[in-house]
Write a structure and sequence with these properties.
This protein has helices at residues 4-25, 32-52, 54-59. The protein is 71% helix and 0% strand. It is elongated. The termini are far apart. The protein has three helices and no strands.
Length: 69
């Protein structure tokens, strides 16, 4: 059974989270260059991971061209 103190604590924490939601959801504008750099990094990382795992390349249908062994 939940007691009054635990209920009030959890209810007030929930209300605070709901009230702070919009403030926490704001995303600051980042320069376009960092988005491009992140995309390039993620693309390179993906290619390295697929090259390191032939099974993954086959599962994703990428075992063509230079990856076809």
């Amino acid at each position: 059974m939940i007691d009054r103190r635990r209920f009030l604590t959890s209810a007030s924490a929930g209300a605070a989270a709901v009230a702070a939601g919009p403030a926490l959801a704001r995303v600051s504008a980042s320069p376009a260059g960092s988005d491009a750099a992140l995309a390039a990094f993620m693309d390179k990382y993906f290619e390295v991971q697929v090259d390191a795992s032939p099974e993954t390349a086959t599962q994703l249908g990428l075992d063509t061209g230079t990856r076809a062994r």
